[in-house]
Design a protein that fits this description.
about 550 residues, 31 strands, Membrane-bound Lytic Murein Transglycosylase D, Chain A, four-stranded mixed sheet, alpha+beta
Amino acid sequence: MADHSPELAAFAASLNAHPEDVEEIYHYRKTSPTASTVPNPAYPPAPLVRPLPPSRWLLLLLGGGIITLLALVVVLCLGALWLYRSDRIMPGVQSMGLNLGGYSIGQVTALLQQSERTIALEGGGTAILTPPADLGLSLDAAATAQAAHQMGRSWAAWQAAFKARTRLQVAPVWRFDPVRAEAKLRQLAPQFEVPARPAGLKVVAGRAEVTPPAVGRALDVAATLSWLRQHPAQVMNEGRLPLVLMAIQPPTTNASAAAAQANELLAHSLIIQAYDPVSNETVEWTVAPTQWGDWVSFSLDPAGAAPLKWTLVKEKVEPFLTTQAAGLGSVRTLNTDEAVASMEAALRASQAEVSLRVYHREQQHTVQPGETFSSIAYDYGIPYPWIQQANPGVSNALRPGQLLTIPSPDVLLPLPVVKHKRIVVSLSQQKLWAYENGAVKWEWPASTGIASSPTAPGVFQAQSHSLNAYAANWNLWMPHFIGIYRPVPTSDFMNGFHGFPTRNGSTLLWTEDLGHPITYGCILVSSDNAALLYDWAEAGVVVEITR
């Protein structure tokens, strides 16, 4: 039998170190069945598994965490490597206020193209919106997207952003067309222009007072274009272009002298004389300076022949003229535009007296029993072909009750009226009177048309002059002819004044017939008198032929 003392000693030492093992063995032996009670052989006990101490569990957890972390780092590195090598923009990259991270270059290009804004052109309190393209500014979206892609992969850019504690900002890439920008600025320049205003005049309570000058402004296209060329990115980022405006100094005027000149005229009432050439009547209106002074405005032109220029404000004069015209009756009226022009011309000539012309409206006539075109024309003093022309479609057989339009007598007075001269011819007396400034200048015997070719009564006007006119219908040469009216409105021939006519170039006719009707519609005076009348009666002199 071998000596097992050393083994036993070691076993005893182990039991002393682990008394729980002794208790386990004792329990096993106590509860183990005997051979008499258990017929089957007994199996050896299962090996004992000792639980790991707490320090070992901690090591396992820590090791697993490290492995997981390493795996995540590997995944992140692989993802970062994939992102770095892809066309995606790195996170944290911005441009024009847009976050571009995660988008592809193509997506960023499209996004930037949609983000363009309008530009406000600002200057002098005025702002006008315009597309950037009109100012020659265009965003190179593809180049900007490429720059964003490259910046996200720049270590230096990330260092700068980290120090500044900001995201990566990519400057947009702008294209600038100065030619197009200049064209747009010149187009818009008038909208920012304020003309310089020289010292002027205004009327207060009928007196002219000096108004101070004012500095104007204009768009400095060259300076604005230079600024835009240097700061296109700022303009696009802010959405505004501050315009460079330059001051325009007003011209120098002697407003005080002009005010004194204006006040000389404003010290007088305005005398308006409305002359009716048909009735030879003048209606006069007097307007106080406090009233007509409100109708005028002034402008000063130092370089002009007349430094002080008067202008009538039509809207202020019209109510007065309308009221005065109503007092002339239903048939007579004033031409407002012509009246304003006449008044303005008088003031510019420093005249306080104004001459206006009275006009006449068309009239409606109800045909009476027995009336004809000729008789109606004779009563109204209008040659009957003119009445026929005003009533197209009306036959010569008039019926009582018919309405006829009677033309205005002004159609026979087409020229500006010479107010201070007038010729009167009497059909019944066969005489002619020439008046100048209301006084008789000449009184002569005259001859008018025969019954089959009568001279029409009415108010006419000297319109043409011919030293020797030819009447083809009667083969007559008429010396010192003054044409006064067309018997037929559509014809070229005229009736008028002349001296003794000739036929075939030699024979003088009607030399012994003055004082009774003898002509074919003209007014005959002696050849000497015809020459005098020819030189005296200029175009526009009114000729009144009475019954």
